[in-house]
Amino acid sequence: MMIVTMKYQRMKKMKAALDYQKKINMLNIKLNELDNNPDRESLSPGRLQVAPVSTPIDSYEVNGGL
After folding, report:
1. Residue 10 domain-assigned?
2. Which of 13, 46, 48 is nearest to 28 (CA)?
3. What pTM does this model have?
4. Theoretical Cys-Cys bridge with 54: which of 7, 48, 58, 66, CB 3.0 to 4.6 Å?
């Protein structure tokens, strides 16, 4: 009886892990759809956008020197 209970508990944990993975996959699919949508106005929630950083040389060239 104890072996059956342990197997049942293991199956429940595996099912919970699979359900969790399915939810993660669905969220990733939705985020990818948002990322690939050319009509969107802003970034999808939770995504970070890295702004380009200018180097001192770039700033010097843009400003025409000192």
Report:
1. yes
2. 46
3. 0.47
4. 58
